[in-house]
Write a structure and sequence with these properties.
The complex is a heterotrimer of chains A (about 290), B (about 325) and C (about 260). Chain B has helices at about 5-20, 30-55, 65-80, 85-105, 110-130, 135, 150-155, 160-185, 190-200, 200-205, 210-235, 245-260, 265-280, 285-300, 305-315, and strands at about 140-145, 240. With about 325 residues, chain B is an all-alpha fold. Chain B starts with 6 loop residues before the first helix and ends with a helix. The relative contact order of chain B is 0.18. By secondary structure, chain C is an alpha/beta fold. Chain C contains eleven helices and ten strands. In chain C, the strands form two sheets. In chain C, strands 6-7-8-3-9-10 form a six-stranded mixed beta sheet, with helices on both faces. The chains are: A mainly alpha (about 290), B mainly alpha (about 325), C alpha/beta (about 260). The interface between A and B is large, with 40 and 44 residues.
């Protein structure tokens, strides 16, 4: 029993990171109908920039803030230089562009930082807490708590603020939003900035546990995408649920089946969802008009 | 005379001349190896042209089939006593069957979903190759037996160096593969593929069994990738699971996109550029991802049709 | 105009479809005989194209039956309907943009080509024969719709009116028993409309059943043997042109607005 609980704890921890990545996917997909494969790189940048700043002597909280703000700026840049110019391009092109962006960022990180694995100290120490016969790291609570806080904040933002509702309007119908005076370019930039910041935050919170390196982005991207799809592409609560589910499935696979193939769990879930339930848990079926 | 100058004939002519005459420019034997590598990559990319250029279906995991072709040549001779040349066919056969089984459900998907599903497939293949160390020796790689064809040629009086043999063998395979792809383009099946690319609704309406055609394109392109992987393994006499990896899949797509994903000649052009780049920039290994990513973005944003069609357009002038 | 009293080729019985709670089409029934020209008219949003999409297999009806040549084909996918002799054109054009005009028309011969991928890959004589036969047929059809001069141009470069004619050529290439034309004269000038008139009459005279959606009332009145009027997804009238044009319900729903515009 403690074993199961242990797996659940690690599943929920890593699931929280996936949920945040999934949320990032959802934000951008809702704003622009684009699936941003570079999403995982935001997580990587969050972790790597924090490490680099911290290693250079910057206090940890400031380093984290720097990472989040810097990555958000990066997200805006990607939108401006890679996505906007290709507006209206066929899906194949957009896929290649965002994958290209992802590889470009990885390549850049490789050169600017290095190819080593890095980490930085946990926020409230390393002493594991004992709960029900299993242990959980304090940092895990930071990660899970962070995910919950982000979701609640975003929910409030979208439902209670004018700007948030403008973002929703744009994602619903860009032209109509423009006609009522919403600055859709700003909304797009904001969506990318938010999405990047959330990814970076996930990276910052998770690095003390998962460690970081220039190449971790793609794994997070694929698993986050799996979570977003499992929950229903475009639905934020789906992203939350889907991300956590992927984390749990992965942890249980590692624990009971094979730790070598735990990464395969997310891909198998993707394939199963695509075959049997492409609209995901919360998504609606679409009909095309001819 | 103009009747002869169809795209198909011009492409084949250019290709044959390229293969036959380039060696005259080679300053050293090393260039045979580079040429062979370009041809091997171009074979895989030609398959991508059929799948993505003709039929409009994206695959981000086609290197998985290259991995199957490669490891078939590494393992079948050792475990089944199969001659390496036959192992090429075995790899192609397994890839075809796997493409059929995996393709049936996957090709019902469109756009991003299709891309991610194929990505998942490719990564799963690469994972198996990495993890099943007892069979594949894992990430360290495995030796691949000698093909033996060069010895046969020697015995009938054709004495080629290893580099020369592989250069011409891969070149001939490429010309053959290009010939098939070019035949397909203007044929009834090829038109059906291009039709479903243009409008699936209209294609269905004229009677095209869209699902079946997509599957055929997927299987055919899988065979191309498999043969490409087999040739790579056989000429290097060594292979690692990276042949099935995500980066290799992306390289294949980038080569296609660079050259203009709809044209066979473009495929070869794209393969040549991306194969030569690491040779030219010896520091390329470090910059590879950066450059690759940049190329992908720039080409898709500014030169959506690929480099070759854009250059050709400049020469031809405005449309009609 | 034919007085063909043969059994109906197409028979719609109680056809209906619901989109998210809204009955876009409700309980529509009528039939089309070989060689007959039936027009479906009605105000915008009356459900005409939705009806077409149900008949041509793009939408699955929620109720009712589509019977083609004695067989219940309700909900069968479009490519199987094509095999049973149904072809159609599209209101919003579904052209193969990056193929030439000739190649577009040739695709209409797909079913007759009985293509084999293997034969095509190896450029076997059977494959070349099939390709040639299709091209010859397509060129004749393009000449019939007046597009033979632009056969080698990329389809995406043509005008809307030309593309409408291309779609008709493609549909005719299939040698259909039933031809569905979705606004064939839209975007055409008076001369082009007359040419399409003649074309449709010719095709009907050869025994093809024709179902037409069209807003050009003069054309509809001129060529139709039978007219079905839809409004808000329901059939409100049907009959020959003279009867329908006098029906007060029809005038109220639709023709009244047309007459006011002249």
């Amino acid at each position: 029993m403690p074993e199961l609980l242990q797996f659940l704890f690690s599943g929920v921890t890593v699931g929280a990171v996936y949920a945040l990545v999934a949320l990032g996917f959802t934000l951008i997909y809702n704003a622009s109908d684009v699936v941003n494969f570079a999403q995982g790189e935001f997580v990587m940048l969050g972790g790597m920039i924090t490490w680099a700043a911290y290693a250079a002597g910057v206090p940890l909280p400031l380093a984290a803030l720097l990472a989040i703000v810097g990555t958000a700026a990066f997200g805006v840049a990607i939108n401006k230089f890679a996505i906007e110019p290709a507006r209206g391009a066929p899906v194949v092109s957009l896929i290649i562009i965002t994958i290209g962006a992802s590889i470009f960022i990885q390549g850049g990180a490789q050169l600017i930082f290095d190819k080593q694995i890095h980490t930085f100290p946990a926020f409230s120490g390393d002493a594991p807490l004992r709960i029900g016969g299993a242990t959980i790291l304090p940092q895990s609570l930071w990660v899970i708590g962070g995910a919950v806080v982000v979701f609640i904040s975003l929910w409030l933002f979208f439902t209670r603020t004018l700007l948030g509702r403008a973002v929703l309007a744009t994602s619903n119908n860009r032209m109509a939003a423009q006609l009522v005076g919403i600055n859709t370019n700003f909304v797009m930039a904001l969506s990318f900035a938010l999405s990047a910041a959330i990814g970076a935050l996930a990276g910052v919170l998770a690095t003390p546990i998962t460690l970081t390196a220039y190449s971790v982005g793609i794994g997070f991207a694929l698993k986050g995408f799996a979570g977003a799809m499992l929950g229903g592409m475009g639905d934020p609560k789906g992203a939350l649920v889907g991300g956590f589910l992927i984390g749990l499935i992965e942890a249980l696979t590692a624990g009971y089946l094979s730790s070598q193939y735990k990464d395969a769990a997310a891909f198998i879930v993707i394939l199963l969802v695509l075959f049997f339930m492409p609209q995901g848990l919360f998504g609606a079926k679409k009909t095309d008009r001819v | 005379m103009t009747r002869f100058l169809t795209t198909k004939n011009v492409t084949l002519l250019v290709l044959i001349l390229l293969v036959a005459l380039s060696p005259l420019l080679f300053p050293s034997g090393f260039y045979y190896r580079v040429g062979a590598l370009i041809f091997v990559n171009a074979i895989a990319v030609t398959g991508i042209v059929i799948l993505t250029g003709y039929a409009g279906q994206i695959s981000l995991g086609h290197a998985g089939f290259a991995g199957i072709g490669a490891y078939a040549c590494a393992l079948a001779p050792v475990h089944f006593g199969l001659h390496p040349a036959l192992a090429i066919f075995l790899g192609a056969g397994i890839s075809a069957v796997l493409a059929y089984l995996v393709g049936r459900p996957i090709l019902r998907l469109q756009g991003y979903y299709l891309g991610v599903a194929t990505l998942g497939f490719g990564i799963l293949v690469s994972m198996v190759l990495n993890n099943e160390r007892d069979l594949t020796r894992g990430p360290d790689g495995i030796e691949v037996p000698e093909l033996g064809l060069r010895a046969v040629l020697k015995s009938i009086g054709v004495d080629l160096t290893n580099g020369e043999f592989w250069y011409f063998f891969c070149g001939i395979c490429l010309v053959f593969g290009a010939w098939l792809a070019l035949n397909l383009f203007n044929s009834p099946s090829g038109r059906a593929l291009r039709a479903l690319h243009g409008s699936e609704v209209a294609a269905r309406t004229v009677g095209v069994d869209v699902a079946a055609m997509k599957l055929k394109a997927f299987v055919i392109s899988a065979v191309y990738a498999s043969v490409s992987g087999s040739l790579l393994a056989l000429q290097n006499k060594f292979i690692t699971p990276d042949v099935a990896g995500f980066m290799h899949s992306i390289e294949m797509v980038t080569m296609a996109v660079l050259g203009g994903v709809g044209s066979v000649l473009g495929a070869i052009f794209g393969a040549a550029i991306l194969t030569l780049l690491p040779q030219v920039l010896t520091v390329f290994a470090e910059y590879e991802q950066l450059v690759l990513g940049l190329v992908m973005m720039l080409v898709m944003i500014f030169l959506r049709e690929g480099l070759l069609p854009s250059i050709l357009r400049k020469f031809k002038g405005r449309g009609e | 105009m034919t007085g063909n009293k043969a059994a109906p080729l197409l028979s719609i019985e109680g056809l209906g479809i619901v989109f998210g709670g809204l009955k876009a089409v409700n309980d529509v029934s009528f039939s089309v005989r070989p060689g007959e020209i039936v027009s479906v008219i009605g105000p915008n949003g009356a459900g005409k194209t939705t009806l077409f999409n149900m008949i041509s297999g793009l939408y699955l009806p929620s109720a009712g039956k589509v019977v083609l040549d004695g067989n219940d084909v309700t909900g069968i996918s479009p490519h199987l309907l094509a095999r049973r002799g149904l072809s159609r054109t599209f209101q919003n054009l579904q052209i193969f943009q990056s193929m030439t005009v000739l190649e577009n028309a040739v695709t209409g011969y797909h079913l007759q080509e009985k293509g084999s991928v293997l034969a095509d890959l190896f450029n076997l004589p059977s494959s070349r024969r099939r390709a040639r036969a299709s091209e010859e047929g397509a060129i004749k059809l393009l000449a019939r719709v007046g597009l033979d001069k632009v056969a080698e141009r990329e389809a995406g470069n043509l005008s809307y009116g030309s593309l409408k004619r291309l779609e008709i050529a493609r549909a005719l290439a299939m040698g259909p028993k039933l031809l569905l034309l979705d606004e064939p004269a839209a975007g055409c000038n008076a001369v082009e409309t007359e040419e399409i008139d003649h074309l449709i009459a010719e095709v009907a005279a050869s025994g093809v059943a024709i179902l037409l959606v069209e807003h050009d009332m003069k054309m509809v009145m001129r060529i139709s043997d039978h007219i079905v009027v839809l409004d808000h997804g329901e059939k409100i009238a049907e009959g020959d042109p003279a009867t329908v044009s006098r029906n007060p319900a029809v005038i109220a729903a639709y023709l009244g607005a047309e007459n006011a515009q002249g």
